[in-house]
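Internal tracking record. Fields below are filled automatically when a chain is submitted to the structure queue. Please do not edit lines marked as system-generated. If the sequence contains nonstandard residues, flag them in the REMARKS field before resubmitting.
Queue: standard
Priority: normal
Entity type: single polypeptide chain
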Amino acid sequence: MKLEHTKYEVEGGVALVTLNRPDRMNAFTNTMMEELLEILAAASRDDAVRAVVVTGAGSAFCAGADLGGGGKTFDSTLTGKEAGLSDHRDGGGRVTLEIFSCRKPVIAAINGSAVGVGITMTLPMDIRVVSRDAKIGFVFARRGIVPEACSSWFLPRIVGIAKATEWCLTGRVFRAAEEAASGLFNHVVEPDQVLPKAMEIAREIADNTSAVSVALSRALLWHGLGSPDPQHAHLIDSKCIFWTGRGADAYEGVQSFLEKRPAKFTMSAWSDMPEFYPWWTEPKV
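SYSTEM-GENERATED OUTPUT FOLLOWS
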């Protein structure tokens, strides 16, 4: 695939996605959006990819939407591409939904400033590693718009409604170290340790786990957030444990443990999933 605003490379089971506009602090564009959609779909299908790490080129992760268009930046009616209110789809939301539906775990390596869509795009990622000095901001109210990229769904579930409303209603920018205990970040580290830490976690997944187990576990955890009670979770848990228990990876997982050797899992998260996957109702788009 030809990439202009991103880079994509795969090595040893880990895909590294780099937002690649360092001269613009990796500001989000339609081109970047389209490339991320293509990359994420490809990573989801590729059995050579076991985990995805997303980072930024240069000193920033993503400074948010590219504001080079001036005051009309967020006015989609001026592009001639949107027929009206009911037809418009937020670009950041398209990316977050693609991440959400990915069959591989996605890890954010937030190496620097992450503001607006630069931080909301990381919310559906499974793990966030951040530089302690990174500037973070849900700045929408200070730009005359609203939280996007499905962040009104993700953010309260990650940090709670009180913290989510504080950040979104004030629109203030803060250093990651100031909110290390908020639950937004898994690891707050020194700037030069962001990518190494994210890659270490990705390598642990790639080297030691079943792709099918990871894909199903990810789906159970995320979609379990919408379950009305534990009984619903129990029913789908039961289907998944019954199905995986008969699979080659379960046999290998137990046998490798008994033989005290590394497991060699062979099942594919793309072609070997159960017939009831996905068990949730996809939103209409």
